[in-house]
Amino acid sequence: MERSPTFRLFNTLLATMVAILVGFFCVRLKVIKPAEGHLKGLGFFIGSMVFPLLIFNTVATAELHSVNYGVIAACSLGKIAVMILTWLLAYVTFQPKRSQGQRILTASVFAFFSVASNDFAIGFPVIDALYDKDMSIYIAGNALVGSFVFIPLTMIAFAIGGAIRTGEGQSNWQIFVNTMYDLSTNPVIFMTFAGLLFKIMFGFSLVEENGKIKLPHPFSDFIELFTSPFAMSALFLTGTSLRSPQISVWAVGMVLMKVVVCAYLSYLFATFLVHGEGVKPLQDFTFFYGSIPTSSAPIVFASQFDPEAAELIATAVLFGLVLACPIMFITAYSLNEQGDPTSSMTILRQVQFSADAGSIFCGLVFCACLLLIRQRWSFTCPARQLLFFYGLVLTAYAAVSLPINPIISNATCEEFNDAGLRTPLVVAFSWLQSSASCMLLALQFMYPCEQKASSNKPWKGFGFACGCLLFALLPAFFATPNTINEICDHEESGSLQLCLNVIWSCVKLVIATCLAIYALCRVPRESTSSDSSSESDHSVEDIENLLQVSHQVAEFRTMALHVRSGTLSRLESGAADWGRFIPRGVILTITIMNIVKVLTQVINAALVHFAFNENMGSFASMLLLECALEHAQLIVLMASLFFDAHFMPSYWPSYLRSSLETPAVQPGQSGTPPAMARGWVGP
């Protein structure tokens, strides 16, 4: 019985995850101890022997005379854009107090992670499973570009960074000589040029077996013997590097750059570079190839050039697999149904219906939480108050979006197709959608500008919320709201409203990107200024802030004394931190999600407006991803709240217990800390 492409894809991804988990559990069970050097031999074998031989074999046996070079160019341009952006962000913002050479090494590792597709372990078997015709030649072409362009560039960056780091005090000529020596002795670069030389001089000796070009015997047997354990060994090494997987900004950011941003940009470039009849499968391939997760090669390079970043890279590799799996499954299904737009439309409506239903449930939970904790939410804090309005707007947004879906009723969509944006329910849908987007931008603005401690400025948060609600009226009446055209199957290609939608999405993306860069660059300046400033340099406002913080520190010390004496539990002391400090982790999570969501909206709206793309193939997957990000915002908000260390684990057990039991010490009596006696509502 022949297995379906989706089933074969599932088996491939399952085997990959099992190989990683085997290495992870071997370290956790202390069967293997990396600190004692148990993995040095395996790392040398993979990084210095097997991987260079794979590069040599790929370059020497590449047959690219029959490929569409626009596909290779689109994938390569998407990688170049992502690589440059990642390198610049990492160099400028990731631990900027380190030496210049170390910053170059770390930025190079991060940049290589964003372009290092797992072509050998995942790419070839997945493409062979999904496509009836031979599309693996495009995997080989991209692997060749990676071997001949991206890896040498990365090695050059590693050589320059290493020479600068170890050559402090040396002349520029000495650093140049050390760099050239490292490049000439690097096995990856050596094997890349050796494969190209073999291709030019001895290309006539290549043989064809089972439709594939191979090296002549016994060289092919020798290389196959050495490289056959690469897939398992590299994935196993990934698992052993994963000491304690924890969600971090950089791990999530690198994964999004590789799996989402690279896929969307590759498809965008393919729209302009791949033309002719029957090119839709080739354009779809660029999106699928961009969503292939990162290989284990960055872990090998990180172990060699930046050991401190090895664990972060390994965590990002695992997160990449977790995120890429659903995207690849959706894409695989869309590719199988690319000739039936009706099926893609049905799936899109079901995804939006499920997201809206889940959001309504989360909205009810959110409102119930607010009723339970009431003033302990600290509504005087502007950021927390804006989070409150953001949750309410999302709840109303889901409640309005659900009846628009044709699964519930076709009446609204029929009225929208006839009257356009003048339908009252559609106007409300657009206004709430734009209001939520504006509030996310306001929260992203507060993240770097507000102090870490909660401030007592209730009118500031209320003013931000009202401003967002008023400003959202402009796009609500003039721009088409996202996802509604696809749900209602509305033909609006090239219209003015859709053009305004593209402009509005681009404005949001530019503002979100600028705020992200500002937030990343502000942290180093704050750290530097705080180290060099003196008490005489503080303004009146700074002194008030210092007094406010000192007051909080005094209360915290008082609370700590009660914890030690047993009067107050540690859970209750952690609960006070929820009202004491701004929930920066929650804001960071939803703003990262917002940047990715806005990027998908810009690309999708532009492809519909300028390229007239239909809901088929990989573009259907892109629409599904946008729909999930747009309508599952409240689910993400609730997940980030319940994973907050102070909101859920530290507060709710103590609150529920105190609400069911009579407290041993009544508020206001001796032994009760001041913050808990008055019901902490902010400093």
Automatic annotation (TrEMBL):
<dbReference type="InterPro" id="IPR004776">
    <property type="entry name" value="Mem_transp_PIN-like"/>
</dbReference>
<feature type="transmembrane region" description="Helical">
    <location>
        <begin position="6"/>
        <end position="27"/>
    </location>
</feature>
<keyword id="KW-0813">Transport</keyword>
<keyword id="KW-0812">Transmembrane</keyword>
<dbReference type="Pfam" id="PF03547">
    <property type="entry name" value="Mem_trans"/>
</dbReference>
<keyword id="KW-0472">Membrane</keyword>
<keyword id="KW-1133">Transmembrane helix</keyword>
<feature type="transmembrane region" description="Helical">
    <location>
        <begin position="428"/>
        <end position="447"/>
    </location>
</feature>
<feature type="transmembrane region" description="Helical">
    <location>
        <begin position="139"/>
        <end position="164"/>
    </location>
</feature>
<feature type="transmembrane region" description="Helical">
    <location>
        <begin position="71"/>
        <end position="92"/>
    </location>
</feature>
<feature type="region of interest" description="Disordered">
    <location>
        <begin position="663"/>
        <end position="683"/>
    </location>
</feature>
<feature type="transmembrane region" description="Helical">
    <location>
        <begin position="219"/>
        <end position="237"/>
    </location>
</feature>
<feature type="transmembrane region" description="Helical">
    <location>
        <begin position="459"/>
        <end position="480"/>
    </location>
</feature>
<feature type="compositionally biased region" description="Polar residues">
    <location>
        <begin position="663"/>
        <end position="672"/>
    </location>
</feature>
<feature type="transmembrane region" description="Helical">
    <location>
        <begin position="286"/>
        <end position="305"/>
    </location>
</feature>
<dbReference type="GO" id="GO:0055085">
    <property type="term" value="P:transmembrane transport"/>
</dbReference>
<feature type="transmembrane region" description="Helical">
    <location>
        <begin position="353"/>
        <end position="374"/>
    </location>
</feature>
<dbReference type="GO" id="GO:0016020">
    <property type="term" value="C:membrane"/>
</dbReference>
<feature type="transmembrane region" description="Helical">
    <location>
        <begin position="185"/>
        <end position="207"/>
    </location>
</feature>
<feature type="transmembrane region" description="Helical">
    <location>
        <begin position="249"/>
        <end position="274"/>
    </location>
</feature>
<keyword id="KW-1003">Cell membrane</keyword>
<feature type="transmembrane region" description="Helical">
    <location>
        <begin position="39"/>
        <end position="59"/>
    </location>
</feature>
<protein>
    <submittedName>
        <fullName>GTPase Der</fullName>
    </submittedName>
</protein>
<feature type="transmembrane region" description="Helical">
    <location>
        <begin position="386"/>
        <end position="408"/>
    </location>
</feature>
<feature type="transmembrane region" description="Helical">
    <location>
        <begin position="104"/>
        <end position="127"/>
    </location>
</feature>
<feature type="transmembrane region" description="Helical">
    <location>
        <begin position="312"/>
        <end position="333"/>
    </location>
</feature>
<feature type="transmembrane region" description="Helical">
    <location>
        <begin position="500"/>
        <end position="521"/>
    </location>
</feature>
